[in-house]
Amino acid sequence: MTFPFSIWFCIKVVQEYERVIIFRLGHLLPGRAKGPGLFFFLPCLDTYHKVDLRLQTLEVPFHEVVTKDMFIMEIDAICYYRMENASLLLNSLAHVPKAVQFLVQTTMKRLLAHRSLTEILLERKSIAHDVKVALDSVTCVWGIKVERTEIKDVRLPAGLQHSLAVEAEAQRQAKVRMIAAEGEKAASESLRMAAEILSGTPAAVQLRYLHTLQSLSTEKPSTVVLPLPFDLLNFLSPPSNKTQGSIPFPNHSKYVEPLNPKKKDSPML
Length: 269
Hints:
The chain is of the alpha+beta class. The protein has helices at residues 3-6, 86-92, 96-112, 117-122, 124-139, 158-200, 202-219, 230-236, and strands at residues 11-14, 18-24, 27-28, 37-40, 46-52, 56-66, 72-83, 144-155.
């Protein structure tokens, strides 16, 4: 009489993202995990456990690691994993999050001991990939699949932060001085080439002179500039002081031999 009513207590529903493991009298029933859908069990003889197959997130707290160059830092991480084999998982681990957390911490300490401080700060992506591969090789025995591992934050001691800041500032100052020196060198080379060109072309000096006068009249209209002709400059400068850059002007005056009153017209006279 009670069978139509008691049968409903022997049927359970499993969601799409869940699997059920049934133990009958303490022994694991053979076969794959039950679900999704309906499954049948005996309330007096069977016990069942549900396993969530969705992606799980585990935050690993800060823990100290020692780098290859003997620096001590604190680092935390995030691990993403999922249950891959429900039967193997229930028979292998009792506390899954705690086991995964300790495994992540020990693996990161072991791998980061072979990395320098600069590599840890600059190569987080490759380090996270190495940690993920190392974790996956261990958790596959437990029925867990590690999907991803990321380094969340890195804490450095105050003294180390100050020394790194001083070193970075010194490198920036050295780079600025190097750039300024290169600029001065390029400017001096340009001035030397310009001087050579102007010294070889006298007309270029006059054009430069006129361009300077035009610039002065444009920038400062109230300034009165009285240009001095080049002919007068060359006339006033002595011949010995003329440099290669001076502009030679032809002298139209011809040399006139003075008359000698004592000179005779003929040696016979």
